[in-house]
Each structure stands twice: as structure tokens, then as C-alpha cells.
Amino acid sequence: MDYVILGIGFLISLVIVLLVMPQYIKLLKSLNYNQTVSEYALKEYKEKGKIPIMGGLLFVLVPIIVTFIIDPKVFSDQKTIMVIVSYVLFCLIGFLDDILIIRRHNNEGLSPKLKMVMQIVFAIIIYFIFRDMFDHDLDIHVFDIAIPLGVIYGLFVVFMYTAEANAVNFTDGMDGLSSGVSIIALIPYLIFSIIQNEFHVAIFIACVIGSLLGYLNYNFFPAKVFMGDSGSLALGALFTAIAIVLDRELSLLLIGGIFLIEMICVCLQQFWVRVFHKRILPYTPIHYAFSITLGMKEKKVVIMFYLVAIVFSIIGLIIGVI
Question: What are the residue ranges spanned by the domains of the chain?
């Protein structure tokens, strides 16, 4: 594998986002493309000054463009194309949601049902376009076991896309949280792709990491830009597609542990409220609960989640390699 090209992709993507983002933020502000923080946010977060939304478009577009330029042979690599198509399609859902939020001047974007339907439809489209390259087995590498799923594998793929997209979206609530955790979680997949000699996938992942690092420079506390659903839904689909093409679907349970915890807490809270009419947790998504129960500052909560994400990624990497 040519590590030079991989490194060049990372650096070019990083530098482009670092240089372009200030002008992009000015453009978003001039267009009044602002949003209050997540609908799930606490009052103190909602009262932050208006911050531009749709910053995620840059870390979606930049790595795609850079990859196509430095690695022209990627057009013939079906696995990388699937990853890129997934990234773009779910970014499109988020883009439509963000546009509606901007026009309505509130957090009422696409309805939850319509958003979910679009995610399911796009996941089905992705599956049928690329189904010939799937082995339809669920591999547990640590035990060297392959569980044949047959036609059920298609349903499993659709579930993965929708679950992971929404899990990353739930995590996007504090400055630098979702982007930082995503960078940490992408590193094991970069290593997996290198080990498996998936050269084109590795280059694209490196470009995404570079772009996300550039974005994080403007998104870490105090944030100057938010990724919006354009970024969060795209990242969820990205993780799913990478895990699938590298034949490591179950790795998301560990490597994406933070996203999984966030989603489980939200689902559990909603279930408990609807059935028992009371909360089981102080607040969800769970990162806000640390501010409520422990009075932790936002920056400390984010750093704590980074550390937990690192532990998850290391464990997931070790198990995956084994």
C-alpha cells in the first residue's frame, strides 16, 4: 500500500477545510443559515448565540473530491464507491432537513417519519445496487465464526444504516462531541482497511479524517459552526458502509460504542415515558445528563466522552484484528 498517497489525501483534506471553512462560515452567516442547538438540548444550550449550520457539507464534499483527484482508480473500486454513495445519499437527507430548519427558523425540519422513510428507502437502494459484492454472512472474527443470514442480511443492512445514522445524530449536541468521537472511531477502520489491503477505502477514510479534523478546529468549544443533519446522518451512513465493505459489521457495537449508548438511552427514555409516563434518566441524549446531575461543564463532558470513545476504539481494534 502506498502510504504516501494516503498521507497526502489526509493532509490536503485537512488543509482545504482549515482554509475554506472561515469563508464558508461567513457565507452561511450572510445567508442567515443559522440554527439553534439540537431540539433535545438543554435550555442553556438553546440560548447560545446563533451559530451557522450545515458545516457538515464541507467534510462530505472535500474528501470525495480529494479522493477522486489523488486516486483516480477509485472509480473502479466497488467497495469505495458504495461508501461514497452512502455518504452522499444520507447527506442529502440531512441537507433537506437542514434547509427546512433554516427556512422555518426552528428545529422543525423533515418529520421524523419522513426522515426515517427516506433513510430506509436509500438503504434499500444501496443494498440492491451493491448486493452482488456482499457474502450475506455475519462474521465474528474473534471466534472465527461466520453466521449465514441469507435474505435476512438485506434487512440487517437497512437496520444498520437507519440505526447508526440516528445514533450519530443523537450524539451531535455539544460542541465538538460528534465530530471528535467520529474521528476516534474512524481510526480503527483506517487500520482495518490497511491490514486488509483495501487501498482505495483507506485513502477515502484518511481524507474524511483530515476533513473532520479541519472541521473540529471550528466546531470544538466554543463552536463557530455546526455540522447539522447534513453531517451527522452522512457520518452514520459512512460508518455503516465502511463496516459492511470491510466485513466487520459487528465492530460498530464497540468502535461506535458512544453512538450506541446515546441511541439506547434515547430509545429507553422514550419507551419509559410513553409506557410509564415518567423519565428513567435525568435527560437524553445522555451527554446532557452529566450537566444536569453532576453540573459538569460542556467541554469536560466532551473530553470525557473522547476518552471513553478511545477505550471503545482500542478494544474494538484489538478484537477486530484478532
Answer: 3-250
